[in-house]
Amino acid sequence: MRTIIKQLSLCALLLCSAASVRAQQTATSSRVLVAPGVEFFVPNWQIDIQTGGAYDLGEGKFVDLLSPALQLSTTYQFHPVMGLRLGVSGAWARNRYEKPVYEYKWNFVQPALDFKVDLLSIFAGWNPHRVANLYMILGAGATYAFNNDEAVEASHHPDVHLRKLWEKDRWSAVGRGGLGTDIRLSDRLALSAEVNANILSDHFNSKEGKGDNSDWHFNGLVGLKINLGPTHGQTDPVYRVVEQRPVEQPQIVPVEEPTGLTVNIFFDLNRYELRRSEYEKLVLLAIYLHEHPHASVDLTGYADKETGNATINEHLSVQRAQAVANFLIGRGIESSRIHKDAKGDREQPFNVPEQNRVTISVVSE
Fold this sequence. Notes:
4-stranded mixed sheet
């Protein structure tokens, strides 16, 4: 019996020793988040369906000159701030002759091309998750007016003098501008509201304005905006795998900070927004700076001498350097490690105009 007990004890001791050896040899690893995913703008198409009321400036009470309004449009948002909108609006318009009193209406259809600018993105930066956006439109188009029978009938009265009366269908040019807002419901859907003013030929309402002043048509519209595709995307987060091996006597090996590393970040002509193609360089740079906490960076912004002028280029080079700095700060790099400079177009390191860029030099402290 004693022999059996001794053998069992010896086996248990050997097993514990083997487990201890394996534990010392087993390496543990973990993933450390170095740079989160970066959101970027994606060009997209939108459809707006809106309805509301219209008002045509003229004689009579405000309510007497109101009429329904419809607008259907499609927008190509090619930039976080700017887009082009092609739409058509119309229904009918109303006006009034006072002495004697004659109210009349006519139909019209108005196609127009508008330049759309997101005002909040200009002043507060692009944010695809913003609840409300404020936009402005400026555009031009043409108005096709028809069915003016009521005005023609009123002109038969001897005391009614419609000096700009038109009987057949009529085309006229139109200039327009307005303000609107989108209330975000989801990535694909938003409530929209817009007011716009349209200036037209003095013939539009068949009456002669003082000094041949143009006619005005105003719209107040509400509706839905539908995004036909994604408006933004996100790059994959960057992780660093850290392996930890237990050792009895940890040794600290000093790391020599490298110097002389240079990275060039390129921009589109006359732009300071970061290209998507440059994100990988900056993410790798952020990883490098996290792994070398004593390194700092010098950012020098440049601009192309063949584009713009000296004042514009000086401002542009400052914005480019700041855009790179903001990227690095957003990935956890302290602002004290980032030094910015701007050369405008006073220095042209490259002979190719398209190579507008920020040069990043990594230095050790």
